[in-house]
Design a protein that fits this description.
The chain is α+β, with helices and mostly antiparallel strands. It contains 23 helices and 32 strands. Strands 1, 2, 3, 4, 5, 6, 7, 8 and 9 form a nine-stranded mixed β-sheet that branches. Strands 13-14-18-17-16-19 form a six-stranded antiparallel β-barrel. The longest helix has 40 residues. About 2% of the residues have low confidence.
Length: 866
């Protein structure tokens, strides 16, 4: 019987023997703005399927880590739902098609996995006679166990238009014990838990046009996906994925950490499965650079992590435990994903910080539940609405089960049906926003151009100018031309580096190059015409702006130095999350869970400048991916799939895969200066910096600013810091005196209001408005008047930029009138709202001109209550 690790290895070896290139798993953060996370094995190959890039190999195989959360609530409840899972896949980009895909899948399933043939079923698309014929004739598969299914089951499409094609799926029959009877077949009602899909073969061969018609794609592709967890369950004779060797050791570890035992009852099993699944997802998401937050990927991580912690609480574990699960996940998955071992300390630190935060949230949630119970009882209600229970769950992360438990103790009812209705509303929103894996068909113009001319020869690494033949000229937006040549010195925007600008001239034509884009190795120049007309087939002279290129190369090489320096100062968890390089500055985004300190920024800047001062050589070599790995080259997923890769090395300090332009010696950078460091998203920081002349200009500006400050504070530049500190100290002392005087004045004004107290139905009432009082000053006046008058109601208002109100009621009167009611009446007149305690309340309003009217309204409300 094969283990999960063995299945993974056997799959890759099987397809390597079928001339497939093995690519490592891509990051869970896809190089694709249309996707939040990597949701399928084909996601990393999307540009190849769409024809945007030429695939470096016609046949590829992978095991790909994936995350899906569209059915999060089912994870732990069912045998096969997961957030994190691994997808085995073999892919063909315009190479082999249906026959090979089908026969190889059959060979692997029966001869390597050794699944029983008579327990296998196959589905094909309704009209796919070809696939059915291959199964019968090439695999000797019995026709009676082939089922034809419609578009909902056996047709894959990117969307209403674009790439699409039929599918064929392989299923394992678990037998009548899991649904149906001896005569049941795949697709029958009530057999979802009986026939388990283990492999989906997608034959992408059509492009659906706007009118709904299908046209053949320029190149037919194969995209397959086989869930490792499901296959392991079938091979190991388990009906539940969580009982395989891929997951059960984690179930046991979760039980040990929560003092629980799997198999005792349904609820315990549910919670242990949630913790098991989510611990894998959390570990891999953080490893790939995701940090908990309230948006995007960070929110997905936070929600999964908190769900796991909640289930620990439901099992009675109040201590931190989830971060300890990371050790077991890494021990089990480290062979297939060795990067986990390097990042284990970082992963555990992030999990522990978030777990501590959420533990406090849970404690806060208990208080919120108790407050809602008190409120319900005060209003003579004996029930919490579904809206409240869902808000506690969704906004504060407080589990419904705990809300229900606390309510039962307080003899207050809750409705699970109402809660689930709100949950379903949220799920519906999630479904409508579900990720689209592929959205457009192949670009027919680029495909036709590629088939006719091939790729553009880029000579920009060696030369800033070149004579080239114009192969295509089209009209683009705003009257600009789109020009493609047989060769070019112009660098196309890529890897964060902006495109070269420059001039194209010849044969009476002159134009300015304002942008260059690359698709499938074809360079398209966006050109503003200066004079003349460009004609296809003629030779032109292409020349880049050399000064801008030089400045850009300095900035680009500096990003490599910065990346390495950040990893040395902050840790190996730092990964590039984006960059931007032009002739003026550089911007570098990276994963890090907290703001850098001034000391860390200084260390990074100093390290980069120390290396620049050493005038280290930059060497650039083309080599195989395997050679680059041995050299220790760093790469993002999108950079590393060429058969030959470009390695940029700065002596023994930095080595990365990069297609950008670089200087030959870092001493030419001159000076590196960080301008700013700030957060741009949860767990993502951004450094902006300048080099060379721009760095000198920045330093010069800072020097001039210091001189101007010195002049203003009447000091020389050498003593300006000390002088400013002394002025600050003087200012602080002055502010203290001012605050003391203001407090005395407020007290004096409050005393003077004693005489203004009026009698309303036997109650002393003070009503007064001001123009320039702060909320704190109004509060102090209210407290002073309550103390002086003993029994009273005080209504005060002030308005300058906005309206401010403060109301006080002494405790002997709160049975008749509450401060919150009065302050709300006032605030609503001024375009605001508010409330507070029965004895004191504050509120604000947008319209400062209505303070008098608002206070009068509060007084009128008071009169009706006394």
């Amino acid at each position: 019987m094969l283990t999960g690790n063995q299945i993974r290895k056997e799959f890759i070896e099987f397809f390597k023997n079928k001339s497939h290139k093995h690519f490592e798993s891509a990051s869970l953060i896809p190089d694709d703005p249309t996707l939040l996370l990597t949701v399928a094995g084909m996601v990393p190959f999307k540009p190849y399927f769409l024809g945007q890039k030429e695939a470096p190999y016609p046949r590829v195989t992978t095991y790909q880590k994936c995350i899906r959360t569209n059915d999060l609530e089912n994870v732990g409840r069912t045998a096969r739902h997961h957030t994190f899972f691994e997808m085995l896949g073999n892919f063909s980009f315009g190479d082999y098609f249906k026959e090979e895909a089908i026969t190889w899948s059959w060979e692997f399933v029966t001869e390597v996995l050794k699944l029983e043939k008579d327990k296998l079923w196959v589905s094909v698309f309704t009209t796919d006679d070809e696939a059915e014929q291959i199964w019968i004739e090439k695999c000797n598969f019995p026709k009676e166990r082939i089922v034809r299914l419609g578009e909902d089951e056996n047709w894959w499409a990117a969307g209403p238009t674009g790439s699409c094609g039929p599918c064929s799926e392989i299923h394992v029959d678990l037998g009548p014990a899991y649904g149906g009877d001896e005569n049941s077949k795949l697709g029958d009602e009530g057999t979802d838990n009986r026939f388990i899909e283990i492999w989906n073969l997608v034959f992408t061969e059509w492009n659906r046009k706007e009118d709904g018609t299908l046209e053949p794609l320029p190149k037919k592709n194969i995209d397959t996906g086989a869930g490792l967890e499901r296959i392991a369950a079938m091979v190991q004779g388990k009906s539940n994925n969580f009982e395989t060797d891929l997951l059960f050791p984690l179930v046991e570890e979760a039980g040990k950490l929560t003092n629980s035992e799997y198999g005792k009852n349904k609820d315990v099993n549910f919670s242990l499965k949630v913790i098991t699944d989510h611990s894998r997802a959390v570990t891999f998401l953080i490893n790939d650079g995701v940090i908990p937050s309230n948006e995007g990927r960070g929110y997905v991580l936070r929600r999964i992590l908190r769900r796991a912690v909640r289930h620990g609480r439901l099992l009675g574990q109040s201590e931190l435990f989830l971060y300890k699960m990371v050790d077991k996940v890494v021990a089990m998955m480290g062979e297939a994903y060795p990067e986990l071992k390097k990042n284990i300390d970082h992963i555990k630190k992030v999990v522990k910080i978030e777990e501590e935060k959420f533990s406090r949230t849970l404690d806060q949630g208990i208080q919120l539940v108790n407050q809602e119970i008190e409120k319900a009882k005060a209003e003579d209600k004996n029930k919490l609405s579904g809206e409240i229970t869902f808000k506690l769950y969704d906004t504060y992360g407080f589990p419904y089960e705990l809300t229900e438990e606390i309510c039962e103790e307080n003899e207050v009812k809750v409705s699970k049906e109402e809660f689930e209705e709100k949950m379903e509303e949220q799920k519906e929103k999630a479904r409508s926003a579900r990720e689209v894996v592929m959205e457009k068909g192949q670009d027919s113009f680029i495909e036709e151009f590629y088939d006719k001319y091939g790729t553009t020869e880029f000579v920009g690494y060696e030369s800033p100018e070149e004579s080239a033949k114009l192969l295509s000229v089209r009209e683009g937006k705003n009257g600009k031309l789109l020009m493609i040549f047989d060769r070019t010195p112009f660098y196309a925007e890529s890897g964060g580096q902006t495109a070269d600008h420059g001039i194209i001239s010849g044969n009476g034509f002159e134009g300015k190059v304002v942008d260059v884009q690359k698709q499938k190795g074809i360079y398209t120049h966006t050109v503003e015409t200066v004079k003349g007309e460009a004609k296809e087939g003629e030779e032109y002279f292409l020349e880049i702006d050399k000064a801008v290129r030089v400045a850009m190369t300095k900035n680009h090489t500096a990003t490599h130095l910065l990346h390495k320096a950040l990893r040395e100062v902050l840790g190996d968890h730092v990964q590039q999350a984006g960059s931007y390089v032009d002739g003026q500055r550089l911007r570098f985004d990276f994963n890090h869970y907290e703001a850098m300190t001034e000391e860390e920024i200084d260390k990074v800047e100093t390290l980069v400048n120390e290396k620049i001062a050493q005038a280290l050589d930059v060497t650039i070599r083309n080599m195989s991916m395997d050679e680059a790995k041995k050299e220790g080259a760093m790469a993002l997923f999108g950079d590393k799939y060429g058969s030959v890769v470009r390695v940029v090395k700065v002596d023994d300090f930095s080595i990365e895969l990069c297609g950008g332009t670089h200087i030959d010696n870092i001493g030419k950078i001159g000076l590196f200066k960080i301008e700013s460091e700030n957060g741009i998203a949860a767990g993502v920081r951004r450094i902006e910096a300048v080099t060379g002349r721009e760095a000198y200009r920045l330093v010069k500006k800072m020097e001039n600013d210091i001189k101007a400050i010195a002049k203003t504070v009447k000091s020389d530049t050498g003593a300006v810091v000390e002088r400013v500190e002394k002025l600050n100290e003087t200012l602080r002392e002055s502010n203290k005196e001012i605050e003391t005087l203001k407090a005395k004045l407020t007290s004096y004004e409050a005393k003077s209001l004693n005489d203004d107290a009026e009698d309303i139905n036997g109650v002393k009432v003070v009503v007064k408005t001001f123009k320039d009082k702060t909320a704190e000053e109004l509060r102090q006046m209210v407290d002073s008047l309550k103390e002086k008058l003993g029994s009273c109601v005080v209504i005060l208002g002030s308005g300058q930029d906005k309206a401010i109100f403060a109301v006080g009621v002494t405790k002997d009167l709160i049975g008749k009138v509450k401060a919150g009611v009065l302050v709300k009446a006032a605030a609503q007149v001024a375009g605001g709202n508010g409330g507070g305690r029965p004895d004191f309340a504050q509120a604000g309003g947008k319209d400062a001109t209505k303070v008098e009217e608002a206070v009068a309204k509060a007084k009128e409300t008071l009169s009706t209550l006394l």
